[in-house]
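Workshop exercise sheet. Pairs work together: one partner reads the sequence aloud, the other fills in the structure field after running the prediction. Swap roles for the next sheet.
Pair: D.N. / O.F.
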Amino acid sequence: MLEGPEAEAWLREHRPCSYWTATRRPFPSLLFVAPLVVAYEAGVVVLGGSAEAASLRSGADAWMRQALAAAGLSHPWFLPILLVVILMGWQLARARDWRFSPAILAGMVVESFVWAVALLGVGRLVDLGFSYLEQAHAPLLSAGGAGKRPELAALLGYLGAGVYEETLFRLMLVPVLFGILRVLQMPQVLSSSWAVTASALLFALAHHAGTPGEPFTWYVFIFRWMAGVFFAWVFVLRGFGIAVGTHAAYDILVGWIG
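Structure field:
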């Protein structure tokens, strides 16, 4: 029978981790995001077929696939596999505990919608600040042109935006910017703040870049920048899975249900 320090060490090792700790870990995030990825990728193939699949893909998804194709990696499932590799590599590199309760995944769904509703409140505040503009605004974070598609295709766009915009602008970009700033000897708190702010700025600008880019308006740009900051802090404080869930839930609430 274990006693003293050995018993305390055993209890620490086998104590179930809290919801708030588990949800920030890569492995639960992967299990939470995986059904969204499968639903999106399968839906794009079923609805679009081989000819129209590209037209159904969200912007960040298309951008990353173009970059991978330029490197000779054009298989349609390579990007989802890359996402799995990143999260599993993160899990293994940090030697994190793999144990968690499956009920945590249900809690992540609820929390994602709570954060999405909070972002809706932020949007209303921005509306007040731009009250001189027209009051009918298109869904700001949904896939471009989704309103002209059948509802199921629009839903796929919202799922794709949630998964791949968070992958590009939060999972990939925030750590890279943070690492660069730390190498430049910026304090950790300032590095986090600047990485969040800069990634959000690029997130907002990306929607107006390329062809076809959305027409620039200050309302849309400022809201997207604020939303990018919101998503980035959700990513930093609550983990990748919650950030994806929040983004997808917001798009669905604004663009598909409302």
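Discussion prompt: The chain is about 75% helix and 0% strand. What would you look at next?
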